[in-house]
TrEMBL record:
Keyword presence, Hydrolase: yes
Organism field: Thermoleptolyngbya sichuanensis A183
MF annotations from Gene Ontology: hydrolase activity
InterPro entries (alphabetical): NUDIX_hydrolase-like_dom_sf, NUDIX_hydrolase_CS, NUDIX_hydrolase_dom
SUPFAM superfamilies in alphabetical order: Nudix (SSF55811)
Lineage: superkingdom: Bacteria
Protein's recorded name: NUDIX domain-containing protein
Keyword Hydrolase in annotation: yes
Record keywords: Hydrolase
Domain named Nudix hydrolase: residues: 1-128
Amino acid sequence: MSQVHVAIAILHQDGQFLLQLRDDIPGIYYPGCWGFFGGHVEPDEAPDVAVQRELLEEIGYAPALLEPFARYDLEDVVRHVFHGRLDVPLDRLQLNEGWDLGLLSLEDIQRGDRYSARAGQVRPLGQPHRKILLEFVEQGFLKST
């Protein structure tokens, strides 16, 4: 089995994190869960190029500066994780993919869920997304940016 490469972004603003509520449809990874914006790295595409392309496709925005945070290699997926500031208000973003978007607080991340007005219910964070965000905060990246 070959590994799928994805490039995802931790976008933060005022101590909160921009996440996407993924569509709640069978057959996708983490349906109905909060997760990062980003997606598949195309063949012969660099992960830093892929994350910018995916952000533009999904929310019509990509920050001028995205820096590498970490790479997570698992048996079936390699996650290339980048981080940067969200320098525009939420109402300037166009949700082109997913059920909802929102800024999640550290408390939301620690608890592992957040309410979505669009879904009308509390929805869980995807486990890998929660783990990555907690590591990001624990390693002091939020304070240094």
